[in-house]
Amino acid sequence: MRYTLLLHYPEVTEATGDEALSPEALAEGQRAFASYAEVLTRAGVLVSGEVLRPSSASTTVAMRGGSLVIQDGPFAASKEQLGGTFVIDVPDLDAALEWAKQAPSVAWGTVEVRPGAVFVRDGAWVPND
Amino acid sequence: MGAERLSHEDARAAAERAARASYGRLVALLAAPTGDVALAEDALSAAFEAALDSWPRGGVPANPDAWLLTVARNRQRDHWKSAATRSSVELDEEGAGAVTVLDEVDPDRIPDRRLELLFVCAHPALDPAVRTPLMLQAVLGIDAARIAAAFAMPAATMAQRLVRAKRRIRDARLRFAVPTRAELPERPPAVLEAIYGCFAIDRGLPTPDWSTSLTGEAAFLAVTLATLLGTEPEAWALAALITLSSARLRPPGAAYLPLDRQDPREWDARLIAEGERYLRRASGTEAPGRFQLEAAIQAVHCDRARTGLTDWPALVLLHRALVATAPSLGAHVALAAALGGADDPAAGLRELDALPATAVACFQPYWATRAHLLAATGHPAEARAAADRAIELSGDEAVQVFLREFADGLGSRAAGTAP
């Protein structure tokens, strides 16, 4: 059973007036995520993992009034943004929650654990068992 | 098979007995492989219907559970097959796996997976408000309408909540397993809390409405959980608490009497003995938990049936420990009442005065207790005002009658007549 861990957390941006992360803090965060990915890989549960750039780099595309509109910025402007995703394959929600508890960003954000419905394998849609 | 011919009524009675005893056991077994509680319930109710049709003609089978399990299992398999046909793929892995797992179950030795089902119903991924109703339905087979009545909620709303919770169990795939204390220390308390919920609904009402009362069901769940967990002191304490409290339940329509005015000869001696037996199993090595303290308080009250006296100093100690362990509003008010019983109503009033005014404004037990403590300290006018507030807040007519008589009695004392 595949679950996606959606990592939401407040972004450090100029707009929020927060000071940028120190290089030390940034390096510490990168180390934490690197070791998290390693632990998931060793356990044989990691399908994919991705940490995203800040939402200030985001661009959205949507159909508005019959025409495609391209806009700068994220889907919704809110204090917390989607910052990364990890797809894991584990037997049940309880196992997924155990992995979610170990995500470094639980310390400064929220980890949403969502079961997948279908996914693409070799070009074909496969139901998530 | 004893092929004795049965009337439809006898068959119904036999099916209902089997349902009461085996419902949760069979649902747990049918639902565990795929997590689909709703499908398990549907398959089982179809099996019960088939039993009503077949048992009057062929007699009650030697092993009714095995019979029901086999029929329900076939129903589930039919469902998976037709689902597979609809989606024009082979029986998916999930369904096929479930069939295999169930085929390995020897119908003559049906395992008990109710404990797993209880833990699923009280899973942290489910809304705490739906856990108790879910247990009542999935483990005991109580229908949504009756659960809704007990929770004073429209039947459709309750049914919808239960459907949503079951869908969540299936779609997010909650684990059907008993977590160890080391894994997740918060899990056993959540199950106990949900079972306590069945009982607390009734306890909020001094004279429970017997048509919707869930106390018997709560006792059954608590004893089942304690037995299955084996040596969990708080589980045995909860079984003791519920059993001892039900020993003192008043018959329907009886006038309300507070505990210390009840005649112990009216209590159920058999239930008291049973509750005390559970309480003895609850003694553990750790400091007593909330349910052990609450059960001990009930045991002290019940002991009046033997000694003719209430040990108020012991009650004050237990209530103080309860306030320290689980400091709820109710626990503080109960401590105040115990202090009043121990001839220290002034200390009881001080306890009440320390509670935040906004929290107690609409808390009926606070005002009823306050009225009694004020009367005992010689403040009849204030006592009457508190009693009036308690009457306003009480939804129970028998309690209103009792408090009205109490307030009227104060009136004559206030006018200078001897109490």
Automatic annotation (TrEMBL), chain A:
Coiled-coil ranges (or none): none
Pfam families associated with the record: YCII
YCII-related domain boundaries: 1-115
Highest taxon listed in the record's lineage: Bacteria
InterPro entries associated with the record: Dimeric_a/b-barrel (IPR011008), YCII (IPR005545)
Family per record: Belongs to the YciI family.
Record-given protein name: YciI family protein
